[in-house]
Amino acid sequence: MITVYFNAKAIKIRKSLTLVELLRDNGYVDGCFAVAVNRSFVSRNDVVNALLNEGDCVDVVTPMQGG
């Protein structure tokens, strides 16, 4: 098990978990959102193959409406 930070919350995950699996496990399957790992945005194509490492910070950003 390793520790990563998902939306600023420390969580334990298995070592070989991919970014897409982490997103799916947390309800981010479809929709309009962007993902950054260690403050670098990850393209939709790269999310599938991205492996997470100890201490990685994963942030999910969703658009907001307002005025």
TrEMBL record:
NCBIfam families: thiS. Pfam families: ThiS (PF02597). SUPFAM superfamilies: MoaD/ThiS. Signal peptide: none annotated. This is Sulfur carrier protein ThiS. PANTHER family: SULFUR CARRIER PROTEIN THIS.
